[in-house]
Amino acid sequence: MVWRFIFASILTVHAAVKSPSDPRCKNLNISLTQKIDNEGFHRELNWLLERSVNSFQCKLAIRLDVGQEMFINPDQIADLNRLGHLSVLIAGDVDVEAPAHVATEHTVYVFVPPFKEKVSLKVPFHLRYQRAQISGGFGKVVVNKPSVLAICPHSCGKIEVKAPCDLTNKVTCGWNNVSYQALFDEVELLVPVGDLDDYPLVSIVTLLLGCAGCIYTLSVLSTTPL
After folding, report:
1. Alpha carbon distance 188, 143 (integer Å)
2. Other residues' Cβ atoms within 10 Å of the Cβ of residue 68
3. What SS3 string covers the chain?
4. Radius of gyration of the chain (CA)
5. Distance in angstroms (rounded) separating the CA atoms of residues 200 and 180
6. What is the pTM of this model?
7. pLDDT in tens, the chain (226 residues)
């Protein structure tokens, strides 16, 4: 009987340690609205993050894994950071000239300003050119669902993520991947791709124009006195 009591006590203590009792930690009451503005290859992610007052104790960041079909321009982000419009860190190399099939993925951390119940964040991004295909048409670009990371005084019982602590990217912190209410659907964008049916015609015209340009250049050089 005594052993059963001891075993039950151990289970109770383990459950208390595993599940924090602080209600502020259990439910941060975070919601995120996402809208994509602009058309063509140059778009803008428009986020509205709403949080309850009890989450003011936590430091928040939005993490977005950017796929090969799109990119965040580091120079553009550097200007927005310098002007104080955003606080964004890009993790990974970004080649703004690479087409989608040879580009690499990268991760973006958008640090949320503290002590505000509603925060509007506008992050510009760009779609990459995709490989041409027969009959042309449109390629699909899926915008990944963002994650909300938090650093709170008490552990929130979520999976810990190692990520930069701030914009300087000098120190790595343990963030909690917290649940939030997503007030948006998964986004799938369309981008026009080249038509391989026109490849022979384009190649011939390009070759003819190149030859004509060379002939014209040589004729000008040969008639110009040195």
Report:
1. 6
2. 17
3. CHHHHHHHHHHHHHHHHHCCCCHHHHCCCEEEEEEEECCCCEEEEEEEEEECHHHCCCEEEEEEEECCCEECCHHHHHHHHHCCCCCEEEECCCCCCCCHHHCCCEEEEEECCCCCCEEEEEEEEEECCCCCECCCCEEEEEECCCEEEEECCCCCCCCEEEEECCCCCCCEEEEEEECCEECCCCEEEEEECCEHHHHHHHHHHHHHHHHHHHHHHHHHHHHCCC
4. 26
5. 52
6. 0.77
7. 444 433 333 333 333 334 343 444 546 899 999 999 999 999 999 999 999 988 899 999 999 999 999 999 999 999 999 999 999 999 999 999 999 999 999 999 999 999 999 999 999 999 999 988 787 789 899 999 999 999 988 766 556 899 999 999 999 999 999 999 999 998 999 999 877 766 677 788 888 899 999 998 988 888 877 6
Q: Give residue for tokens 């008490």.
A: 154
